[in-house]
Structures are given as structure tokens and as C-alpha cells.
Design a protein that fits this description.
It is a single chain. 66% of the residues lie in helices and 16% in strands. It is built from ten helices and eight strands. The chain has a four-stranded antiparallel sheet. Strand 2 and strand 3 form a beta hairpin. Helix 6 packs across helix 9. It is elongated. It starts with a helix and ends in a 9-residue tail after the last helix.
Length: 459
């Protein structure tokens, strides 16, 4: 089977099978905005961050509650059977007795070395830290989803270029084969063109594999189970979007240091560590609290002397439980820490070290942010120049290809020269597409690194 026949059979199979596949599967239209929203809805890391944010809200509420008095109550009943001491007769008898007791108590913290206040402040700071971390995770998801979506579009464009190149080479093969049959071209041109077609078929296969891989990466990012065929909508990219912005590195650095949510989260971490240090130091101060309580009880053995000598009158439940057996108490307590086996000193030292480490982490994060912004700015500048260069290169390659094609048709150019011009034009077209998408990538990457990226992406 000849290579030409194989290529034609391959094209016919695609022509026949593609409509059948399209008919068998329902097509779902996916836009960039829908992809980003789907990723935000399904991403488990973002859901965990939402749970942590909700937990921090409960911790703030709990810290407020620590400033309030505590209130507790209880009630208990008992039944005793056996030999018991009878107080009225000063004897022991076998009896079954019943009793009920109840109590209500409260404790009011008056002073605890400002531990409760600092704990409340730390809880609020931790909540703000969780919010900043949540925002950075959202930015990561938006950025990664947009990049993978655009990568799918780029790979699809490259596959289209490869298919067009293959079609052109197959048409040239047919023309050369006809010319060889009539003796107008040497047989070596046919062999040369068959080699070119084979190489283009390999390029198509490689482009299809690259598209499948980028498609799978996007699906993994969206965390969805796809049974339908996806149709990706190309965002509208006007010519103004391909014009390089006039950017100043110092201004970008200032924006990043101010806007980056991971820097904000680390600043909150330092503040939280400082309050933790205050709480640890508060253990050296005395604590003062006020307590109050009320209790009552009932016993079926309780009685009072009667009007006649030796007579005992049983007292009912209501009189005992709600009147005669009620007791009340109130107290102030002061606790002074004297020595607890150096546990307080160790806790303070740990809090101080954690505070210093948080400051060091912030300095390292700032350094990392500066490096990321500088690298992104340099790459953006380079890609701006590359975008302009690929445009000029594409225009020149296209003119060269058209010229060589015309010269080959009249016999003024060899097949090698035509194939070289075709290869150069194809490479220039691919380089142009890569440059366009890489430029868009880099703009979004720059926005991501300076901390101004959100789901309302514009191109």
C-alpha cells in the first residue's frame, strides 16, 4: 500500500467517523468564564479553605464567650437500701431512703492577665489570616484554570496548523505524482514529498496527543466527570490586547507588596504570634475570679419536732426543696503563680521563637515576591519583543512561501526549496500562535504575581 493511498484512506476515515462521533455524543459548550466558575465550585482545596474560614468564625464567637460568666446547674436523685444510722433515734436500722439534691453555680472571671482579651484579638487576626489564605487559593485556581484553558486553545490552534500543513502536503504529493507519471518531474521528487507527508502525519499525531494531554489537565483542574464532548469557546482577543503595556518595575513591586494576599496572610500570622506571646506572658500574673452558688436538697427521712414530746413531723418535698434546705454561697478567689516547674518560662520562650520565625518567614516571602515580579516583568518584556518579531517573521515567511510556490509551478524552483519554504512558513505560523498565547499567559501571570487577578478576566 503506497504512502499516498494510506494518507487518503486516513483522511476518508476521519471524514466518515467524525460525523458519527459527533452524532453519538452531545456537545457541551465551555467558555473560559464557565471553566473558572466550575473550578471554583468544585475545587476541594477551596472548600477546605471555606471550612477553615467558618471554623475561625466560631473561634471568634468562642473568644467573645470567654469574657462572659459561666453558669452551670445540676440535679441528682438517690435511693439507699440497707442498715442506716437514724439520727433522731441514734440507732441503726434497715431502711430504704430517698433523696433529691440540686445546685446552680456561676463563675465570673475578673482578671486573668488579659488572656481572654488577647485571645479574642488573636482569634480575630486568625480569621483575617484565613480570609487572606482563602483569597490566595481562589487566585491560584483562577490562574491555573485560565492557563490550562488557554493551553487547550493553543494546542487546538497548533493541531489545526498541522492538519492544514498535512492537507497541503498531500495535495502537493498528488500533483507531483501526476507530474512524475507524465515525466514532468523526477521520481526523486515523489520520494521527497512522500517523506514530507509522513513527517506531517507524525506532527498531526503529536499535536493530537498534546491537545489530549492539555484537555485532561483542564478536566482534572475542573474536577468534573465528562461524558460529553466539550466545545471550547475562544475568548475575544482584540488587537489592543496584543499591544504591550507600559509598565514600571518599581510600580509593580509596590503593588505586589501591597496587594499580595499571601503577604497579607503572613502579616496576620506575625500579629497572631504576638498575641500568643502576650497570652503566654499573662501566665505570670495573678488571676481573680468571683463565684456564687445556690443548692437545695430533699430527704424522705427529714422531720422536725412536733408539739408533743417525742413527736416528729415529716416535712414535705416543697417545703424542703424550695424553702428549708436552700443554701447559698459566694466567694472571691485569687490565684498567684509561684512555681510550675518552668512551664511558663518554656511557653514564653516558645511563643517568642514562633514570633521571630513568623517575622523571618515574612521577610523570605517578600524576597520571593520581588523575585517573582522581576522575573515575570522580564519575561513580559521579552515576550513583547518576541510578539513583534514573530509577526514580522510570519509576514516574511508567508511571502516567501507564496513566491516559492509560484516559482515551483513554473519550474523555476526545486521541490526542496518549496518544502523548505513550506516548513519555514509552518514554523513561523506556529511560532506566531505560541507567541500570542504566551503573551496572554504572561500578562495573566504578571497580574497573578502582583495580586490583582480575579475571575473577571479580560483579554
Amino acid at each position: 500500500m503506497s504512502l499516498r493511498f494510506s494518507a487518503l484512506l486516513f483522511a476518508q476515515l476521519l471524514f466518515i467517523l467524525y460525523p458519527l462521533q459527533a452524532f453519538a455524543q452531545e456537545t457541551v459548550v465551555l467558555t473560559l468564564e464557565n471553566a473558572i466558575q466550575t473550578a471554583l465550585d468544585n475545587n476541594f482545596s477551596l472548600k477546605q479553605a471555606e471550612n477553615n474560614l467558618e471554623l475561625s468564625d466560631h473561634q471568634v464567637t468562642s473568644a467573645y464567650a470567654d469574657l462572659m460568666p459561666s453558669l452551670s446547674g445540676g440535679i441528682s436523685g438517690n435511693r439507699n437500701t440497707g442498715r442506716q444510722f437514724i439520727q433522731e433515734d441514734l440507732t441503726f436500722e434497715d431502711r430504704t431512703t430517698y433523696g433529691i439534691s440540686g445546685n446552680l453555680s456561676t463563675n465570673i472571671p475578673i482578671f486573668s492577665g488579659f488572656q481572654n482579651i488577647n485571645n479574642l484579638r488573636r482569634s480575630k487576626v486568625n480569621r483575617n489570616q484565613e480570609l487572606a489564605s482563602f483569597q490566595r487559593i481562589r487566585e491560584n485556581i483562577i490562574f491555573n484554570t485560565a492557563m490550562r484553558y488557554l493551553q487547550v486553545l493553543l494546542d487546538r490552534e497548533l493541531l489545526e496548523i498541522s492538519n492544514q500543513t498535512l492537507e497541503t502536503s498531500i495535495l502537493q504529493l498528488e500533483q507531483i505524482e501526476a507530474q512524475v507519471d507524465v515525466g514532468a518531474r523526477p521520481i526523486v521528487d515523489l520520494y521527497q514529498q512522500e517523506s514530507v507527508v509522513a513527517g506531517n502525519e507524525l506532527s498531526v499525531v503529536q499535536a493530537e496527543n498534546a491537545l489530549d494531554l492539555s484537555h485532561l489537565r483542564l478536566i482534572r483542574m475542573l474536577q468534573i466527570d465528562v461524558t460529553e464532548e466539550l466545545e471550547f469557546v475562544v475568548p475575544e482577543i482584540d488587537d489592543a490586547a496584543l499591544l504591550p503595556r507600559d509598565l514600571e518595575l518599581d510600580e509593580l513591586l509596590a503593588i505586589a507588596l501591597e496587594q499580595r494576599s499571601d503577604l497579607e496572610a503572613q502579616r496576620y500570622q506575625i500579629e497572631s504570634s504576638r498575641y500568643s506571646l502576650y497570652i503566654a506572658r499573662a501566665s505570670r500574673f495573678p488571676s481573680i475570679s468571683f463565684s456564687a452558688g445556690m443548692g437545695t436538697r430533699y430527704s424522705d427521712q427529714y422531720s422536725i419536732p412536733g408539739p408533743t414530746p417525742g413527736e416528729r413531723i415529716d416535712v414535705g418535698f416543697g417545703e424542703q426543696f424550695f424553702d428549708q434546705m436552700i443554701s447559698r454561697s459566694a466567694s472571691f478567689s485569687v490565684s498567684i503563680p509561684l512555681f510550675n516547674r518552668l512551664n511558663t518560662a518554656t511557653s514564653i520562650a516558645q511563643a517568642e521563637i514562633q514570633y521571630r520565625n513568623a517575622q523571618l518567614t515574612l521577610d523570605d516571602t517578600r524576597f520571593q515576591v520581588r523575585e517573582e515580579v522581576r522575573q515575570a516583568y522580564n519575561d513580559y518584556t521579552s515576550l513583547s519583543k518576541e510578539l513583534e518579531a514573530t509577526e514580522r517573521s510570519l509576514r516574511a515567511a508567508e511571502r516567501a512561501f507564496e513566491t516559492q510556490e509560484q516559482r515551483y509551478e513554473i519550474g523555476a524552483a526545486t521541490l526542496i526549496e518549496l518544502n523548505q519554504a513550506t516548513t519555514t512558513y509552518t514554523e513561523a505560523l506556529s511560532s506566531r500562535q505560541r507567541a500570542v498565547y504566551n503573551f496572554i499567559f504572561q500578562e495573566r501571570l504578571l497580574d497573578y504575581y502582583i495580586g490583582i487577578l480575579d475571575e473577571s478576566l479580560s483579554f
